[in-house]
Give the backbone structure.
Amino acid sequence: MTTDKPVKVSIRHLYKIFGPEPEAAMTKVREGMGKPELLKTTRHVLGLRDINVDMREGQITVIMGLSGSGKSTLIRHLNRLIEPTAGEVLVDGENILTWPEGKLRQLRRETMSMVFQKFALLPHRTVLENAGTALATRGVKRRDWEPEAKTWLKRVGLGGNGHQYPHELSGGMQQRVGIARALTSNSGIMLMDEAFSALDPLIRTDMQDLLLELQEELHKTIVFITHDLDEALKLADHLVILKDGEVVQQGEPQHILLNPSDPYIEDFVADINRARVLRVRSVMQAGPAEGTFAGDIAPDDNLESVIAAAKGALEPRFRVVRKGEVLGTLEMATVMRALVPRGSRQAAE
């Protein structure tokens, strides 16, 4: 993953404590008190502790964790739907915690759009009117926002549904309206809070594919919240894993999968289908390719396709090639080692 893209959103030393006297509780948190003890001794809830994350322009940052990990609390700090106890939230280098209410409204209307888990469509408005909501609230006249809304409805596969109402659509179609609404707003940052978790598995996969297809063209800065590791690994350019309000590990998803930082992450990734998720680029040996090869593979091919190309044999070696350029080699022995979680390898050794 390239990291030379500029930082669009930066979170610095962010804390959130829920309760009547958060500042007093902050002292104990800074001294090292954890979430269970803080709740027991002070009746305050530690939502977030010292969060530091850079979200780069044009990339998908996925924030994931189990229920209660703080991921939805975190995303609501990005547009100040929740006020932090301490820390900074920088958008294009400006600390939005210092902004007045008028500038915040502009941020929410023009800079950031949000796609919700429960769709949040207006039931008394048509699909077309829902898609155009963001522009309409800015005072844009219907004759101006309607063509834009129609364009994005068509792009998400709802070109002929503009006259319908939300209750006439399936869940997947309603969420497509939510995405069209976010795109019609023309904001550079999209916040997606468990956007696909209410959908059936097959529809959810379709929505993930749609998001990646649109992102390939639009290069939005997307912050995506999920509790599903498969979804996170599929979508993320940068993955942030939370536990009890703290960042346990963050980085490129392939690196996290191959190099879990502690037992919690090892357990988290233990049951993942590594052959389907791991990419050739993550396990290949970079450099010149010499000798004989069974064929050429691409750096973004998954290991499942490499195993199929080897037809189950352990001897083949492959050249890794992108657009005619040889990037390195991959041996099947390396593939087999990569498929075994690190904890299992260490136990065997």
Summary: The CA atoms of residues 119 and 175 lie 6 Å apart. Residues 201-218 form the longest helix (18 residues). The two ends are 31 Å apart (CA to CA).
